[in-house]
Amino acid sequence: MNPEPRLTRQPRGRVIAVMVAWNGRPFLETAIPSVLEALGEHGELLVVENGSTDGSFDFLRARFPDVAVLQTGENLGGAGGFSAGMRVALEDPECHHVWLLDNDILVEPGALEPLLDALSSAPDIAAAGSQLCLYDRPDTVQELGSRYTPWLGALEQQHAGRSRLPADASPREVDYLAACSLLIRSDILRQHGLFHEALFVFYDDVEWSLRVRRAGHRLLAVPASVVRHCYGGDRPTVPWREYYRKRNRCICLRLEPPRRGRLLALYFYLVYVSALAHYLARQGDPVLAGIYRQALDDFDNGRLGRRDIVRPATAPLPCPKRPAEPGRILRCRRAMPRPPGRHCSKPQLNASRASIDLAPTSPTVRRLPWSANATVGQQPTVTNCSDIAAADVGPTSPTPVANGCSLGCAWQRP
């Protein structure tokens, strides 16, 4: 049984900052004072202590006794941690903005006001993000928002690696803003929901950004607001990171397909990851190959949430009929389902299956049409959603409800 979350006190204010902390005690000593200084009289800080094992909770209570802390009792990932914090923030009726922050950051003075000004500049602006600079090189930009390529599910970080933009530079519209420093209007969260907790980590803020933009809102990256971030983009390849990136990128392509081509973009990405896994296995990297295959298999079967990463001891045997060649599209798709009577096949999109419970995004619930036998972590599946057309998911989809899903599903097909 999962432990019950514990909240030391309800945060109050027009702006409530939500910082998710997981084993980040070395950063909290400097991160929290910088956030409190930036907040000033606008509001308060809520730290989501996400099941840390480094004594972060005791440190917070001793060093910052006046800061509200939500102790989740387990690691909910970035998606679950931020959603839990946003849910608490929205309990305050006076909260007009929620400011999402990582724990490995340093907020520069005056970072909040430019974000507030950006949100008030037009009614269709849903969120504003800071200019993210490197923690130890504050004159070098990590990103200023990102552009999204719908056919690849890829992100192009704007202004990355270049010199820091001056404070008088104009805000620019982008497709995606990182939750490292993201100010969101509370009415947008109430209307369009929170992060999908079943994503656990990576692509949770990407999916949310795309969801909000599809509803007609805009996102602004604001150079005048600067937050320094301990960026890990240049770290070596880590298997668990690769697993969540590949699996959740598939989910993002499924939920937010391009307007033209629709699921064809997902199909091409499945082919690419399957080919990459086969190539890595033949090149002597069975661990990463197995990670990619597990990501595809879990996506295909709807196994979401936090997952145990299986690391194979040896590489699986290659296809005996038509071996793979580097640089060519593979004929064999071991990670994908095969039709009967064939040894090798192209990946099959299981769009004929029913829906799965992607995650509650209180105050609304959104669901992903994919697998009838899916699980979210180890939780049972609920499959009642009227937003999924029978023509899209096949005859096994649940019967539509006249006024929407009986579970309150607010997801509309793109």
Offer a concise description of the structure.
The protein is α/β, with parallel strands linked by helices and 414 residues long. It is built from 10 helices and 17 strands.
Number of strands: 17
Element string (H = helix, E = strand): EEHEHEHEEHEEEEEEHHEHHHEEEEH
CATH architecture label name of the largest domain: Alpha-Beta Complex
End-to-end Cα distance, whole Å, is 37 Å
Shape: globular
The count of domains is 3
| Helix fraction bin | 25-40%
Task: Characterize the structure shown.
The protein has 414 residues and is α/β, with parallel strands linked by helices. The chain has three domains: 224 residues, Spore Coat Polysaccharide Biosynthesis Protein SpsA, Chain A (Alpha-Beta Complex); 113 residues, no CATH class; 63 residues, no CATH class. Helices cover 29% and strands 21% of the residues. The chain is built from ten helices and 17 strands. Strands 1, 2, 3, 4, 5, 6, 7, 8, 11, 12 and 13 form an eleven-stranded mixed beta sheet that branches. Strand 15 and strand 16 form a beta hairpin. Helix 7 packs antiparallel against helix 8 and helix 7 packs parallel to helix 9. The radius of gyration is 22 Å and the shape is globular. The C terminus is likely disordered.
Which short descriptors sum up this protein?
about 425 residues; alpha/beta; Spore Coat Polysaccharide Biosynthesis Protein SpsA, Chain A; 11-stranded mixed beta sheet; two-stranded antiparallel ribbon; 17 strands
Secondary-structure blueprint of this entry?
Layout: E1 6-7, E2 15-21, H1 25-39, E3 43-49, H2 56-63, E4 68-71, H3 77-89, E5 97-102, E6 105-107, H4 112-120, E7 125-134, E8 141-143, E9 146-149, E10 154-157, E11 172-174, E12 181-185, H5 186-192, H6 204-214, E13 218-229, H7 239-255, H8 264-282, H9 286-300, E14 303-304, E15 355-361, E16 364-369, E17 375-376, H10 390-393
Parallel strand pairs: 2-3, 2-5, 3-4, 7-13, 14-17
Antiparallel strand pairs: 1-4, 5-12, 6-13, 7-8, 7-12, 9-10, 11-13, 15-16
Helix pairs in contact: 7-8, 7-9, 8-9
